[in-house]
Specification:
alpha+beta, about 70% helix
């Protein structure tokens, strides 16, 4: 019995452990940049949902506002004698039933539907723009957090090397071949690196907070992948420039211009006469019933000035919307030129640092170590050479991340 009971208990324990700690194990899985983008898009951002609800509301409004107004049904007792209150005494006494149907002026209904449809289209482009902004924010937030984590690693490695130099300085000082100044210099640089680590941790905490706001506490707390991130290749500057007109922000503004154009058309339709049809049926007791039908036409005579100014206002609003679209086009162009310049120049600096600057700094550090061992250089020069390597490594890491962030901005402009 015990042989069967013990394996069952063990299996139950394993199942409970998986249920309790499975989430924690998943939280420790390194988070890659593509996965971050997918999680950010699937995080159910309220702003994205709000755009969808607005678009559906305008689509519903397009159908509702394009329908004919409800007919008006009327009923009355006409020509009723008040002296005798006798319904059959006077031949003109009758029960009248009427039906009235108004028709909007010109093509107002169809134009109103087109206006609401254009607004719905613009809202959907704004939704697409928000999704592109989420992708950009996810990429740049991940890259920023990656940099500060990498900066901490490089600083800790440099601090370890300085500590090793401190051991050398203490050994040399114990043998009487150097002064106490070398030992104190190591302590000073160690404390300085501690202060740098505190500042790095502060920036990393800020980047982590932004990361958690984007992904949530659970996924935002996961560690990042150690592999250096790779983004999709950017197209040429001219190709991106040609695609700016298709950017979601531009398409949303195009839809707004279309909306204002329909408002201009609706205002112009108000100069046309409005029609309404009337039909009435008069019911009398013992006499012939009456029937009548008529058409009413509204004449835009005394309200002409109001309609003129309404049309002028609609045209001015359309012109304003076109100017706003032109302003956005200029802003996208400036953003393209700025990010392209940063992307290309940072690439040149990275090539220079990787091919020349970093190698020379490491050679200088090794030469200083050799010279110090041969009593040809002082200890402070050795420490300065090591710290110079750290500064160059941090600069190179920052340049790489800045270039990737500029690349992410270019991908945003090209709609990728």
């Amino acid at each position: 019995m015990s042989r069967l009971f013990l394996p069952a208990v063990a299996a139950l324990s394993v199942s409970i452990s998986v249920l309790l700690f499975g989430t924690d194990a998943n939280a420790q899985t390194p988070l890659t940049l593509p996965e971050t983008v997918s999680l950010a898009l699937g995080a159910n951002d309220p702003s994205v949902g709000a755009f969808e609800q607005k678009a559906q509301a305008f689509e519903d409004r397009a159908i509702a506002d394009s329908q004919l107004p409800d007919p008006v049904l009327s009923a009355q007792v006409a020509n009723f004698p008040l002296s005798s209150f006798d319904y059959n005494r006077e031949p003109m006494t009758q029960l009248k039933f009427g039906l009235r149907q108004e028709l909007p002026k010109g093509q107002t209904l169809s134009l109103t539907r087109e206006k609401q449809s254009a607004q719905a289209k613009g809202i959907r482009f704004e939704k697409s723009l928000r999704e592109q902004q989420i992708i950009l924010e996810a990429r740049q937030t991940w890259l920023e957090l990656y940099y500060w984590r990498d900066a901490r690693r490089l600083t800790l490695e440099s601090q370890q090397k300085v500590a090793e130099l401190g051991g050398v300085a203490e050994a040399v000082y114990s043998s009487g071949r150097s002064s106490l100044q070398d030992v104190l210099r190591v302590d000073l640089e160690t404390v300085s690196l501690d202060a740098k680590l505190v500042d790095i941790d502060r920036n990393e905490d800020i980047a982590r907070a932004n990361f958690e706001r984007l992904l949530g506490r659970l996924d935002g707390a996961r560690d990042l992948s150690t592999a250096f991130p790779v983004l999709p290749m950017v197209q040429s500057e001219e190709t991106i420039r040609d695609r700016l007109a298709m950017h979601p922000s531009m398409k949303a503004l195009d839809a707004r211009v279309d909306t204002k154009s329909r408002e201009v058309d609706i205002a112009a339709e108000q100069f046309k006469p409005g029609l309404s049809f009337d039909a009435q049926y008069g019911l009398r007791d013992s006499r012939s019933d009456f029937g009548s039908i008529g058409v009413s036409v509204s004449l835009p005579l005394f309200s002409k000035k109001n309609k003129d100014y309404a049309l002028s206002a609609a045209k001015r609003l359309r012109s304003s919307q076109k100017l706003e679209r032109d302003t956005q086009a200029l802003e996208l162009e400036r953003s393209l030129r700025r990010n392209w310049a940063q992307y290309t120049r940072l690439g040149e600096r990275i090539d220079l640092y990787e091919s020349d600057v970093l190698g020379r700094a490491r050679e200088t550090s090794e030469a200083a170590m050799t010279a110090y061992g041969n009593n040809l250089a002082d200890f402070s020069e050795l420490v300065r050479a090591e710290l110079a390597v750290l500064d160059i490594e941090l600069t190179l890491s920052r340049l790489r991340i800045d270039r990737l962030q500029a690349q992410a901005s270019l991908l945003f402009l090209s709609g990728e």
